[in-house]
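Sample 1 of the test manifest.
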Amino acid sequence: MASYYYTATATTTWANWTSSGTGTATSAWTQWAATDTCQSTSTTAYVVWDAWTGYEAVTTKESAEERRIRETHEAEERKERERLAAERATKEKAREKKARQLLREVLTEEQDKDLDKKGYFELISVGSGQKYRINKGRSRNINKLDKDGKVCGIVCFHPRDYLHDYDTMAAQKLMLEYNEEQVKKVANFS
Amino acid sequence: MSEMRIMDVEAGDLKVIWDADNQEEVDAARAQFDALLKKGYFAYRVGEKGKKAEQIKKFDPEAEKIILSPAVQGG
């Protein structure tokens, strides 16, 4: 059997064990369980730990009152987390509603219908006549279209601020239509 | 009444309204417009339902609606 030392930490115990023993966890456990009083099928990690290190594992016993206080505290925390989540959801919903309304105001009726129906809308740049498609999203959501309306590339740019996706799409639409030169300066094309 | 819509991370967008005949309101809106353009915002004068929009670099008190969007970057 491999020799072992009663030391205070798992690291040193393990180091001592493996440096003087056979070196693997499997063989160490097999030897231990077969020759010592602890049996792998009938013991717990605490018992093994106690026997191994000579130190008793510290377990705390909670009184009924302590348990009641802990459970009350946990319930309060859970309730507060749920309240904050609901507040965030409400705020996000209001933000989305406003952003969708603003986007609606900059889209033609046809573009607006396309967005609801297909998840994207198309536009033509006023300066160059180039056609683009803006899909729902914030990044890598713009396609460059060829003269037949087929996708021939991806254009990637978005506002630096982390706006709602609908606001981002409104900003992208206005830039591509009326400020395409600026887009060419900053966007990545692939 | 004219309005300016400023895209905003927290609020969705902020609305600034002014009466073109009220110089005080026009000045306040113009100051806000100029400050945002200095910060890199782009301004567009837009018509109804996505028609007749154009980029502007100077505040137009007679504009029906102006939309301001933040500076952009490549993705």
